[in-house]
C-alpha cells in the first residue's frame, strides 16, 4: 500500500520568495488541441503543456547546493539516497513558532540511514498565513540527528529552521553532512505506528539546488 505525502502541484499555487511582478507557479498550454489539429489533418490532436516555477516550491527536496555554493545538486543525488526506511514522530502538540527540543519528542534509537519525518500537523494550515508561523527543530535535535546518521529529515511545514535564525542551523549542519531535507509534506498522521519505506523522488535536474518531488510511503 502506498500513501501519498505530496501537496498537489497546480497553477498559481503558494510560492515563497516571489520577486515583484512574479506570479509563481504557472501551468498552461504551450500548444493547445485546437492549435495542433491542423497539423494532423484533423484526424488527431494533442496538447503540450508549459510549466514554469522557481524550484523551492511545494513538497520539495533540498540538496546541499541549496545552502552551499559548491554542494552537490539535485541531479547528482543517487536513488539509493532517495528511497530509504522511514520513521515518523509525533510533534502535533507544538505551538506556532515553538522550538522542538529532545524532551518534546520520542525519537527512536536507530536513525542511521533512515528518514525521520516530523509530524507537526502543519499541513492543515497549507495555503493559509498560519502555515508560515510554524514550529521548527532546535539545535539539540539537529545535533542528535547528525550524530545518529539520519539520511533524510522531512517536515510537514514550510521550513525545518526558524526563519528568524539567519544561521539556519538545520540547513547548514544537516546539508553540510549530506543529510537531505524535505519540506511541505502532508498526511504524516497516516504513518503513525506503521513500518514503511520513504520515497522522495525529483527529476534528476542538473544544477538545481532544490526541486519539487513526489513524496510517498510504501507500507510494509
UniProtKB/TrEMBL annotation:
GO molecular function: arylformamidase activity
Organism, as annotated: Bosea lathyri
Listed name of the protein: Kynurenine formamidase
GO BP field: L-tryptophan catabolic process to kynurenine
Pfam families the UniProt entry points to: Cyclase (PF04199)
Amino acid at each position: 500500500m502506498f500513501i501519498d505525502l505530496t501537496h498537489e502541484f497546480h497553477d498559481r499555487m503558494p510560492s515563497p520568495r516571489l520577486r515583484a511582478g512574479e506570479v509563481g507557479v504557472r501551468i498552461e498550454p504551450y500548444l493547445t488541441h485546437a492549435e495542433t489539429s491542423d497539423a494532423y489533418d484533423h484526424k488527431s490532436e494533442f496538447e503540450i503543456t508549459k510549466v514554469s516555477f522557481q524550484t523551492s516550491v511545494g513538497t520539495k527536496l533540498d540538496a546541499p547546493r541549496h545552502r552551499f555554493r559548491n554542494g552537490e545538486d539535485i541531479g547528482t543525488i543517487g536513488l539509493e539516497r532517495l528511497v530509504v526506511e522511514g520513521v515518523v514522530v509525533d510533534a502535533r502538540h507544538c505551538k506556532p513558532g515553538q522550538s522542538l527540543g529532545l524532551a518534546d519528542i520520542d525519537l527512536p534509537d536507530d536513525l542511521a540511514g533512515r528518514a525521520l519525518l516530523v509530524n507537526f500537523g502543519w499541513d492543515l494550515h497549507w495555503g493559509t498565513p498560519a502555515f508560515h508561523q510554524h514550529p521548527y527543530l532546535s539545535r539539540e535535535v539537529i545535533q542528535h540527528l547528525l550524530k545518529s546518521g539520519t539520511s533524510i529529515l522531512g517536515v510537514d511545514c514550510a521550513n525545518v529552521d526558524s526563519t528568524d535564525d539567519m544561521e539556519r542551523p538545520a540547513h547548514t549542519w544537516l546539508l553540510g553532512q549530506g543529510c537531505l531535507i524535505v519540506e511541505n509534506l502532508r498526511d504524516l498522521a497516516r504513518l503513525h505506528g506503521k513500518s514503511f519505506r520513504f520515497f522522495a523522488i525529483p527529476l534528476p535536474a542538473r544544477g538545481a539546488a532544490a526541486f519539487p518531488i513526489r513524496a510517498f510511503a510504501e507500507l510494509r
